[in-house]
Amino acid sequence: MTEKIRKRLIFHGRVQGVGFRYRATGLALSIGLTGWVQNESDGTVSMEVQGSGEQIDKLLITLNKSDFIRIDHLDSAKIAVKSDEKKFRIQY
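RESULT FIELD:
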């Protein structure tokens, strides 16, 4: 089995008001990822996502192909895996 990793991501660009969180949640659930996504007050969207590197890459590639979403820059850091996490959700 592929090693599970967790990443903290911050998306910059046209990422609020375009359905980003809902698109990300639907994709993450369909791919089998866990974690969360939320809007930030500075106009960015932050996400913690957990799964294999390949699954996370698939999420990012698909999000980048969305018609209304435009990701100009992405900050990414590997963080500790949360072994008890069961699903992906929108955080408010």
